[in-house]
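>> received
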Amino acid sequence: MHRIDSATARANANGDGKTGFHDNSDLPNQDATYFTPEWSNALQEEVAGVIEGLGLALDKSDNGQLLKALVQQFGEKKVLEDAIKDYKAMFEKDRERLDELESRTYEDTQIGELFWTSKHFATAAEVAEYKGYGTWQRALQGRVAVGFSADPEDHVDFRTHGKLYGEREHTLTLEETPEHKHSQDDVFDKFGSNASESGLETQAAGDYNKQPEEYGTGDLTATDWERATEQSRGGNQPHNNMQPSQTLDCWERVT
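>> returned
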């Protein structure tokens, strides 16, 4: 491509050093600027080259081909550029979201839930520092966890959520002791070497359940019988109710 350079081209018509077209009416005996074959062909091929280069065949009846070609070219490019821009924005947003997720502390224990661990913490602040979130308080201190039961056959304590029950030690009441009767062995233990003097050595096995008034001469007196059968047994100490256990830390998250 080149600017018009015919003999009648107007110097500096389009700026310094840029020739152009002019009617030259202000110049005596000067014709208006005329085309040259070289310039006309250059202009023609420049325009045609753009149209054909963008995939369109020249159409003599269509004077809007250059515009169509440009719209097609730059319109598609604009769509592509916009799509790329949108994808970049989406990727950046996803990247920010992933970075936030990666840096966020995963709260695996929600408010009201329990955190069991074999690691021992002296204070709630140590738990919060270890977990990285929440405030905590000790839970089930000195107690064993039992699963809630919906079975109507189970004891009511098992069917009451949050129920506290049970004893570490318990002394049996009279009603809780097994039903039993005292035998002559208890009497021998009571009277020891004096048993023969009380006639115990002559008592037959079948007489063990006799009442005091049923014994004859030389047998235990009613007073001796009562003294023997009322003899105290046992140390009256509470027994251990706890199964073999291991202590673990249990913390409840409160906020």
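>> The longest strand covers residues 249-253.
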